[in-house]
Design brief:
Helicase, Ruva Protein, domain 3, 2 domains
Length: about 110
């Protein structure tokens, strides 16, 4: 979780800052939690909200690290090919998110 958030906010905050916010946010949530099963995902969202708020309050630009969502529901390797094209055409750091290859429920083709 920390490495992923540190990468996502790398153009705005140092890894140490992100680590401090992750530890602090987890501690704050754990103190009040009755169920600890969802603490990692709740911590991730809480840290994202806090760092986004800190960035906005200090006038920093969060658009420095583009994020790309690659979706291929047939597990045919298209998302890997798209990632290779992005590597070639984008000269900046990027984050790739690939959802599970077995979609839940009904899918819509665009």
């Amino acid at each position: 979780m920390t490495d992923r958030l540190a990468y996502r906010f790398s153009s705005t905050f140092s890894k140490e800052t992100v680590e401090r916010y992750v530890a602090d946010s987890y501690r704050l949530l754990a103190e009040r939690a009755r169920v600890s099963q969802h603490l990692p995902s709740l911590t991730t969202r809480f840290v994202e909200d806090r760092l986004n708020g800190l960035a906005v309050a200090s006038g920093r630009d969060l658009r420095g690290t583009p994020e790309v969502l690659l979706v291929c529901v047939q597990n045919a390797g298209r998302s890997q090919m798209a990632a290779a094209y992005c590597d070639k055409w984008l000269a900046t750091k990027r984050t790739y998110e690939q959802p599970p290859h077995a979609p839940q429920g009904r899918s819509t083709h665009l």
